[in-house]
Amino acid sequence: MNNTQNGRTRTGSLISLVTIMSALVSPLAHADSAIKVGALATLSGPMTLPESPAAAQAVFDRVNQQGGIQGRRIEYVVQDDKGDAGITAQSSRELVDSQGVVAFAGSASLQDCTVNGNFYRQRNVLSIPGVGGEFSCYSNRQFAPVSVGPARGSLAALYFASEKLGKKKVCAFLLGIPAHMPGNAWTIRQYQAITHKKLALVDTTTLPSDDMTPHVLRARDAGCDAIVFAGAEQMDLAWVKAMQMQNMGNVTLILDTPAYTSNFAQILGTKGDGIYANSEYEPFLGTAPALTDWRNLMQQSKVPLSSFAQGGYISATLLVEALKKVKGPITRESVTEALRSITGENALHTPMLGMPFDFGVDSDHLSTSATKFVELKDGKWETVTPDFMAIKPAK
């Protein structure tokens, strides 16, 4: 799930920054008058995701510097769930019941949606995750992730392979961890329903610790002319190396968002030319005007430029817009009502997202996916789909 400009490394300083900044008290107002916003993020453990809450913190800090909302500062309370389901459940109760957060924004947890969906429904609290890796994030109405996520990203990549690149024997290799299995099944089912085509090979057994060679040999023997591979960045690099060892340079490779980093491009150089990846937002390594405010704020706040940082920035920005819609007291109930009103003609538009943001009670978040694709050319990522590509799932 990694996607940073500087690669896989998550520095301890950034994790500390999120923890320290979330506890800072602005001189705008006393703490008891603050608007509390929560986030659950995996800040320690084998896989850390600090950029999303760090980016959200930067957004809220700027709002506070500009006078807050209704003269009240936003206090951003971030809990590290350490990638542990038990801590995820405990932390959510601390944030909701003890801290009294009015909503969540910028969350980047490995299991928040699965563990806490029912609890958030009982407490009438809503979340705009900055990183939504679980398939359940897109089907539980308490959540409205701004990210495309693995299932929808893989569907877009498969569609791109056959319908845009014209490939005839498309093969799918999807991450085999249990949490991804429902999403994998949805991806394959949707691809076949939308295109009326069958994939040449489907492999949902790849794991981060795997030797990729046996999987690559399966693809070679199946005669794939395009491969969609969904994994973390290090898995992607291992996959490319295995393909190169088998002299499969004539097979088109399309990767999910974790591969879209400057680190990935630097490691492969021109040997990676022709590899595609999808971008969940306006490609962050590009020069589009839509990136200007985000990039400037991230650089000022010393947050690494990444897709995860885009997610945190967008989610926090959307919540701020919802807070501004509240005319009376800002409470959990009024914020939930404001978020639910962001639907239909009142959906919010932000230039880094390919589709309007809709959090209505009947919103179908699986239907609001849009991505762009990038390709390695001369060792650098270039955007090859100027317009966002939206795919409407079949019913």
Can you put this structure into words, describing what you see?
With 395 residues, this protein is an alpha/beta fold. It has two domains: 12-148 and 288-363, 3-Layer(aba) Sandwich (Rossmann fold), CATH 3.40.50.2300; 149-279 and 371-390, Response regulator (Rossmann fold). The chain is built from twelve helices and twelve strands. The longest helix has 19 residues, at 307-325. The radius of gyration is 20 Å and the shape is globular. The model is unreliable at 4-11 and 19-31 (pLDDT under 50).
The low-confidence runs, each spanning 5 or more residues with pLDDT under 50, are 4-11, 19-31
Mean residue pLDDT: 91
State Rg: 20 Å
- Kindly give the count of domains: 2
Find the CATH topology of the largest domain: Rossmann fold
Give the oligomeric state: single chain
Helix content: 25-40%
Number of helices: 12
Strand count: 12
Shape: globular
Roughly how many Å apart are the termini? 28 Å
Q: Helix/strand-derived class?
A: alpha/beta
CATH architecture tag of the largest domain? 3-Layer(aba) Sandwich
DSSP strand (E) fraction?
Answer: 5-15%
Tell me, what is the CATH class of the largest domain?
A: Alpha Beta
* Largest sheet composition: 8 strands, mixed
What is the N-to-C order of secondary-structure elements (H for helix, E for strand)? HEHEHEHEHEHEHEHEHEHHHEEE
CATH superfamily of the largest domain: Response regulator
Domain Leucine-binding protein: 35-379
Signal peptide: 1-31
Family: Belongs to the leucine-binding protein family.
Pfam families: Peripla_BP_6
